[in-house]
Design goal:
It catalyses: [protein]-peptidylproline (omega=180) = [protein]-peptidylproline (omega=0). The chain is of the alpha+beta class and about 190 residues long. The chain is built from three helices and nine strands.
C-alpha cells in the first residue's frame, strides 16, 4: 500500500474512532444531563437548600464569621467531592490536609460558592454540569455532563503580598546574580 493511501486510511480510521467516542459521550451525557436535572429539581425543594441565578445550589451547614473571599484570592479549604451515585472522586479529608488554590483557577461552581462563604463556613454544594466540568468530564471518574455534590469547609483566604525587601546585586565572574527576598504574608481579609 502506498504511503499516501496508508495515511488516508489511518486518518479515516482515526476520524471514525473520534466520532464513535463522541457518540458515546453524547449518549452518556444525555443520561447525566437528565439525572442532574432531576436531582437538582428535587433537591431545590429540600429544606435549607438555596439556589443561585446560575443554577448552583447550596445548603449552609455552619455559617462562618470571617470575611468572604474575592474571585482573585487564594483560599484554603477542606472538601469531599461526589458524583450523584455517591462515588467520591476527590477528598482532602482522605489526604489529611487542606487544599489551597486560586479561586479563579477552579470550576465555576467552586468560584461562585466560595465567594458566598465566610471564613469558617461549612456548606454542601450541588453543582450543575455547566458550572463543573461540562461535556469534557474529568479524570475518568467524572463523566461528561455530571452534576457534582461537594461538602466544603472554607478555612481562610490566603493573601500573598510580594515585596522586594532585600535586593542585592552582586557581580560574579561573567554574570549578574540578583537576590530577591520574597515576603509572604498570610492574613485574613
Amino acid at each position: 500500500m502506498p504511503v499516501g493511501e496508508m495515511q488516508h486510511t489511518m486518518q479515516n480510521f482515526q476520524r471514525a474512532m473520534e466520532d464513535k467516542k463522541q457518540a458515546e459521550q453524547m449518549e452518556s451525557g444525555k443520561k447525566n444531563i437528565e439525572a442532574g436535572e432531576k436531582f437538582l429539581e428535587e433537591n431545590s425543594k429540600k429544606e435549607g437548600v438555596k439556589n443561585t441565578e446560575s443554577g448552583l445550589q447550596y445548603k449552609v451547614l455552619t455559617e462562618g464569621i470571617g470575611k468572604k473571599p474575592a474571585a482573585t484570592d487564594t483560599v484554603e479549604t477542606h472538601y469531599e467531592g461526589k458524583t450523584l451515585d455517591g462515588t467520591i472522586f476527590d477528598s482532602s479529608y482522605k489526604r489529611g490536609q487542606t487544599t489551597s488554590f486560586p479561586l479563579n483557577g477552579v470550576i465555576k461552581g467552586w468560584t461562585e460558592a466560595l465567594q458566598l462563604m465566610a471564613e469558617g463556613s461549612k456548606y454542601e454544594l450541588y453543582i450543575p454540569s455547566e458550572l463543573a466540568y461540562g461535556p469534557a468530564g474529568s479524570g475518568g471518574m467524572i463523566e461528561p455532563y455530571s452534576t457534582l455534590m461537594l461538602h466544603k469547609i472554607f478555612q481562610k483566604s490566603l493573601h500573598f503580598y510580594a515585596a522586594f525587601c532585600n535586593t542585592s546585586i552582586k557581580w560574579s565572574k561573567s554574570f549578574l546574580t540578583a537576590w530577591f527576598r520574597l515576603i509572604v504574608r498570610v492574613s485574613f481579609p
